[in-house]
């Protein structure tokens, strides 16, 4: 029994080490891709705000802006579905980045009709929110939480 | 999927013979850490040839542990792999059995 269990134990440790190596490689790849996604979302959101700033004197219909952002979200989602790896930082996005960016976006859109300079400021601050998330994920923060 | 042996109280009886193969264990451990991964990325990460990975994925898919989705990026065909909930549960049970066998880590 002792010899059988010795063999079992060694095999089990080797199998666990092998699984840990594979999981570690996945976590590392996941962080790398998640960082890219967060930066891409930040860039897309900020460029959208810059675009709004550029054309707002000629377009004032809120429904058009709503449509514009819906199309943007669909394009980013389609882009994400085509990427080689999906390891979304779910809780970080759900509980921190989206609310924080939502506040920046909401304030920008509320203030900008009176003070158009708020558009570029909102774009920069909004990008900073996503970049901070990318930095956090890149330094080893849990991808799933 | 049957365990390595059908009876007994030793933790090895809770091992999943399908996952016990080192290559399949590595594939599942990789997929467990992500939502979805492209075939080529898994192949590079677990250091397998495409035919070998394809064969192992076929086995895991047949067992219901891995979901395979095919699509295109531009004109290039792509295959994405996802660990199913059944696969995640089976992997977790298998790893728990391995930990029970391995026992506490010795200094």
Order of SSEs of chain A: HHEHH
Computed CA radius of gyration of chain B, to the nearest angstrom: 15 Å
Strand content of chain A: under 5%
Q: What would the average pLDDT of chain B be, to the nearest integer?
A: 88
Give your account of this protein's structure.
The complex is a heterodimer of chains A (145) and B (107). With 145 residues, chain A is mainly alpha-helical. Chain A has 4 helices and 1 strand. The longest helix of chain A is centred in the N-terminal third of the chain and has 54 residues, at 2-55. The model of chain A is unreliable at 1-7 (pLDDT under 50). Chain B is of the alpha+beta class and 107 residues long. In chain B, strands 1-3-2 form a 3-stranded antiparallel sheet. The longest helix of chain B is centred in the last third of the chain and has 18 residues, at 85-102.
Key words describing this protein structure:
heterodimer; A: about 140 residues; mainly alpha; elongated; disordered N terminus; B: about 110 residues; alpha+beta; 3-stranded antiparallel sheet; 5 helices; about 50% helix; about 20% strand
What topology emerges from the helices and strands here?
The complex is a heterodimer of chains A (145) and B (107).
Chain A: H1 2-55, H2 62-81, E1 85-86, H3 90-111, H4 118-138
Chain B: H1 17-20, H2 22-32, E1 36-38, H3 39-45, H4 50-62, E2 66-73, E3 76-83, H5 85-102
Antiparallel strand pairs in B: 1-3, 2-3
């Amino acid at each position: 029994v002792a010899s059988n269990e010795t063999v079992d134990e060694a095999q089990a440790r080797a199998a666990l080490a092998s699984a840990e190596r594979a999981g570690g490689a996945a976590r590392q790849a996941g962080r790398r891709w998640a960082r890219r996604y967060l930066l891409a979302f930040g860039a897309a959101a900020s460029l959208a705000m810059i675009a709004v700033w550029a054309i707002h004197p000629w377009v004032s219909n809120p429904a058009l802006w709503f449509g514009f952002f819906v199309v943007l979200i669909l394009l980013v989602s389609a882009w994400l579905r085509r990427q080689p790896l999906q390891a979304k930082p779910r809780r970080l996005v759900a509980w921190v980045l989206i609310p924080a960016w939502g506040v920046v976006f909401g304030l920008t859109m509320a203030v900008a009709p009176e003070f158009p300079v708020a558009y570029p400021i909102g774009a920069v601050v909004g990008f900073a929110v996503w970049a901070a998330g990318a930095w956090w994920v890149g330094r080893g923060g849990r991808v799933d939480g | 999927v049957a365990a390595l042996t059908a009876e007994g109280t030793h933790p090895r009886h809770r091992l999943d013979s399908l996952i016990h193969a080192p290559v399949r264990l590595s594939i599942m451990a990789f997929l467990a850490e992500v939502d979805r991964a492209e075939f080529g990325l898994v192949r590079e990460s677990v250091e397998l040839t495409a035919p070998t990975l394809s064969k192992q994925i076929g086995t895991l898919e047949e067992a219901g542990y891995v979901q395979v989705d095919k699509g295109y990026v531009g004109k290039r065909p792509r295959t994405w792999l996802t660990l199913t909930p059944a696969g995640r549960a089976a992997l977790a049970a298998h790893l728990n059995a391995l930990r029970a066998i391995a026992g506490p880590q010795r200094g």
